Amino acid sequence: MLWSDPENEPPEELRDMQEKLRRLGVLVALAMVLSMLVIGVR
């Protein structure tokens, strides 16, 4: 590994996008669970 190699840290925008995608995935999963509960109650 050379001293001139770039760091493995992703750029700031990429990290922000990953965080947003993670939150979106959690929201979608919660929505699916809620819809399944509503369908199951009926």
Architecture overview:
With 42 residues, the protein is mainly α. It has one domain. Helix content is 71%, strand content 0%. It has 1 helix and no strands. The chain has one helix at 12-41. The termini are far apart.
Arithmetic mean pLDDT = 88
Number of domains: 1
- Quick one: biggest sheet? none
Q: Unreliable stretches, pLDDT < 50, 5 or more residues?
A: none
Helix content: over 70%
Shape: rod-shaped
- What is the strand content? under 5%
How far the N terminus sits from the C terminus, by CA atoms, comes to 61 Å
Q: Structural class, from secondary structure content?
A: mainly alpha
User: How do the helices and strands follow one another from N- to C-terminus?
Assistant: H
Nearest-angstrom radius of gyration?
Answer: 19 Å
Find the count of extended strands (DSSP E, 2+ residues): 0
Continuous helix count: 1
Pfam family, one: MmpB
Keywords: Membrane, Transmembrane, Transmembrane helix
Transmembrane segments: 24-41
InterPro entries: MmpB-like
Short recap of the structure:
The protein is an all-alpha fold. It has one helix spanning 12-41.
Which descriptors apply to this entry?
rod-shaped, 1 helix, mainly alpha, 42 residues, single chain
Write the layout of secondary structure elements.
Elements: H1 12-41
